[in-house]
Amino acid sequence: MTGLYLCVDLAVLIIPLAVSFEPKMRFVAQWRDFWPTNLAVMGFFIAWDVWFTSEGIWGFNPEYLLGPELFGLPLEEWLFFICIPYACVFTYASLKHLVNRNPFENASLPLGISGTILCGVLCLQFSDAWYTFSASLLAGLFLAWMTASGVKWAKVFWLTYFVILLPFFVSNGVLTGIKFWEYPLLHNDSHLIRDFIVWYNPEHFTGWRIFSMPVDDLIYGSLLIGLHIAGFEFLQNRRLKKVAQ
Question: What are the residue ranges spanned by the domains of the chain?
Answer without folding.
Answer: 4-13+33-244
